[in-house]
Amino acid sequence: MDQLLRGFPGVQCSLDDILVMRRTDKDLLKNLDATLQRLGECGLWVRKDKCECFEPSVEYFRHIIDAAGLHKAPSKVKAIVDAPAPQNISQLCSFLGLLNYYRRFIPQLETLLKPLRELLCQNKAWKWAEACDDAFKKVKAVLTGSVLLTHFDLTSITYM
Questions:
Q1: Does residue 68 sit in helix, strand or coil?
Q2: Are 67 and 56 in contact, with CB atoms under 8 Å apart?
Q3: Residue-wise pLDDT tens digits, 101-121
Q4: Which end of the chain is more exposed for a tag (fewer CB within 10 A), N or C?
Q5: In degrees rounded to 5, what are phi and psi of residue 13?
Q6: 53: which residues sit within 8 A by CB, 6+ positions away?
Q7: How far is CA 117 from the centre of its chain?
Q8: Residue 65: enclosing H or E segment and its boundaries?
Q9: pLDDT tens digits along 37-50
Q10: pLDDT category of residue 152 using cuts at 50, 70 and 90
């Protein structure tokens, strides 16, 4: 899908999910028409019951996208916040994998996770220390904060 729709303005793909976006309704319809035409040329169809059009916000790839920017999906954040402390390396890897989706919302994430990452070293025995517990709790607290990533705006750039 990525290769099929590469270069289409305002079109983003993730597996079989396609997100078509633009600033104006006119541009959106133009991009949507071009996207549907390309899919049709390749013998692909979309299911009308799975389509959402002209929505003020949409959940896409574990994020909420709206006019203000990119937000964390509350249901996904809840899964991370409700996760119990890992008891072994496998559980720790699963937790770190969940966090990876929201890494851009957590400033200095790698520094914060250092005690947890050290547990992954092959020559170290598993020992959930106080530093690990502190890092685990702090990353959850930071994740529940209100960080918003805004849309990039070329008009905000000043050239010298």
A1: coil
A2: yes
A3: 888 888 888 999 999 999 998
A4: C
A5: -120, 145
A6: 32
A7: 21
A8: strand 63-66
A9: 999 999 998 888 98
A10: very low
